[in-house]
Amino acid sequence: MKFSMCTAVYGMHDLHDTINRAARLGFDAVEITAAKHLPVESTKEYREEVKGWIKDAGIKCSALHYIFDGSVKLATTDPELNEKCYEYLCKVVDVAADVEAPTVIIGSGGTTRNIEEGTDREEAARAMADVIRRVGDYAQTKDVYIAVEAINRYETTFLNTMQEATEFIEMVNHPYVRTMADTFHINIEETDPAASVRKYGYALQNLHLADSNRMAPGTGHIDFNAIAAALLESGFNKYCSFEVFGLYPWKLWFDSPEEADRQMEIGIRTAKAAFERAEYNVSYGSIEGKFGATSYEGR
Ligand code: LER
Ligand code: MN
Questions:
Q1: In a designed cystine with 217, which of 32, 75, 241, 270 is the match (CB 3.0 to 4.6 A)?
Q2: Does residue 52 contact residue 16 with C-beta atoms inside 8 Å?
């Protein structure tokens, strides 16, 4: 499995140093938190520079996430707003192509994706699907995939579950438009997160990893062994990207890069162990069956 790290983990810390830290910690890639670190207003020269930092660190750019700046609306039936959204998303695709990111993630909590009261849900869904399909056409010319993320009900009123996101991209019906799941959100919304991953994993372009507390995998109560096994079973082999935030809304990022490093160390250890266990189980049969359940007693 390939692992990536969202640059937001280090908040507004120097981006070049954040990229180097990701490489040192063993990540294969960084996912750029676009609205903060590489917005649509960024110059071609700066994008070239960022691409160079990533190459020099010996890693890749896996995706752009956190792409919206509050200026556009996704699920609206207003044709002018639909057009504005289309143009904005095409600009994000340009940013992705400029830093050789294969994926643009449409996350978008809050007002960007909410369906406003009085708006017909089906019409809004169809209008958003039409916009995303046109963006898919543009993205295909640049070989960039669009990944529509299922986000929990407390952040958006539209596309909360993996089933809803999958049905939505089936309505879009475009080879460059896929889904995206986030372990933090599916832990809230799915009755059985691993079962949903097994069922809808075929449509995934990318996965965000965070624990139940939105901190690093291994610090909360999500069963990453079950998620890793389900991902492998579904045939998923793309990037798992750490989208980890500080615990409190008033402390979105960690206090220091060193604190973020410590979180990432716990996270990558937990995630790699979960995937190694799942891969072992696929190749040789259950590790638990051979050696009994893992015991942490005495450690
Ligand atoms: C929002 O909660 C989320 O999960 C992000 O991926 C948004 O870009
Ligand atoms: Mn996410």
A1: 270
A2: no
